[in-house]
From TrEMBL:
<keyword id="KW-0028">Amino-acid biosynthesis</keyword>
<dbReference type="Pfam" id="PF00218">
    <property type="entry name" value="IGPS"/>
</dbReference>
<keyword id="KW-0057">Aromatic amino acid biosynthesis</keyword>
<dbReference type="InterPro" id="IPR011060">
    <property type="entry name" value="RibuloseP-bd_barrel"/>
</dbReference>
<dbReference type="InterPro" id="IPR045186">
    <property type="entry name" value="Indole-3-glycerol_P_synth"/>
</dbReference>
<comment type="pathway">
    <text>Amino-acid biosynthesis; L-tryptophan biosynthesis; L-tryptophan from chorismate: step 4/5.</text>
</comment>
<dbReference type="InterPro" id="IPR013785">
    <property type="entry name" value="Aldolase_TIM"/>
</dbReference>
<dbReference type="GO" id="GO:0004425">
    <property type="term" value="F:indole-3-glycerol-phosphate synthase activity"/>
</dbReference>
<comment type="similarity">
    <text>Belongs to the TrpC family.</text>
</comment>
<keyword id="KW-0210">Decarboxylase</keyword>
<keyword id="KW-0456">Lyase</keyword>
<dbReference type="InterPro" id="IPR013798">
    <property type="entry name" value="Indole-3-glycerol_P_synth_dom"/>
</dbReference>
<protein>
    <recommendedName>
        <fullName>Indole-3-glycerol phosphate synthase</fullName>
        <ecNumber>4.1.1.48</ecNumber>
    </recommendedName>
</protein>
<keyword id="KW-0822">Tryptophan biosynthesis</keyword>
<feature type="domain" description="Indole-3-glycerol phosphate synthase">
    <location>
        <begin position="4"/>
        <end position="254"/>
    </location>
</feature>
Amino acid sequence: MNILDKIIVDKKREVILKKSIIPVSQLEASVFFGKKTISLSNNLRNSNSGIIAEHKRRSPSKAEINYGFTVEEVVKGYESAGACGISVLTDGKYFGGSLEDLLLARASVNIPLLRKEFIVDEYQILEAKAHGADLILLIAAVLTREEIKSLSEFAKNLGLEVLLEVHNQEELEKSIMPTLDMIGVNNRNLKTFEVSLDFSKQLADMIPNEFVKVSESGISSVDAINELKPYGYKGFLIGENFMKTDNAGKAATEFIEKL
C-alpha cells in the first residue's frame, strides 16, 4: 500500500467520525455558508504571475517544513505579495493542517482560498464551504469518473470552483467534464514522490482550453514558470519553496517581483 492509499483509508475513517459529531445542519449554519465565493480561475486568467501560494507545515516526504509561522502571518504575506490565491492544507495526520487553518486564513485575507484536502465525500465539501473556502481540490488518482462527476456537481451547486488534479493521461481522460474549472498537473508522482516538470509538459496539449491549466509541485524557480508558460499554464501552485524560508510572505514577494 503506497502513501496515497494509506491517506485515503485514514481519510474515509476520519469523515465517518466527523459526520457522527458535527451534523450537516451545523455546517450549513456557518456565517460563511451563504458568502459569495471569489473566483480563482478568473484571477489566474487575468494575472501575469499566476501564483497560488500554499500554507503547509509538513508533508509525508518532508517531516517538517515550518511550524514557526501563524496562519495569519503567512496568508497576509501571500496576499500582499500579489498571489492570485492561497492553498490551505487541512489534513492533520500527514500535513499538520486543520480546518481551523482555513477559517483563520478566511478571517485574514480577501483572495480565493483552496481547501487542499483528500476529498472522498460530499461532507468535506460542505466543511470547505462552511470554513470559508472558494474552491476545492479533487484528486483523479483516488476517485472514479462517477465520483468526480458527483463531487464536482455538488461543489458547483454550493458556488465553489473545482480544481482537478491529475498525474497522467489516463487520469486526465477519465476526468474531463464541464463541472471542472481548472485542471492541475501534479509534477510529483504521489506514489514514488519523484518530481519532474515533464509531467506538466506532456499533458499540456491534452487539456482542453476551456479549463485553466495549473502546474503543481516541484516549482522552485522563476525559470521553471517561464519554461511552463509556453505550454499554456496560467496557474502555478508553490508550497514548500515559500514555507521553508523564515518569511514566507517576503519569499513570495521577491519571487513574484522577479516574475
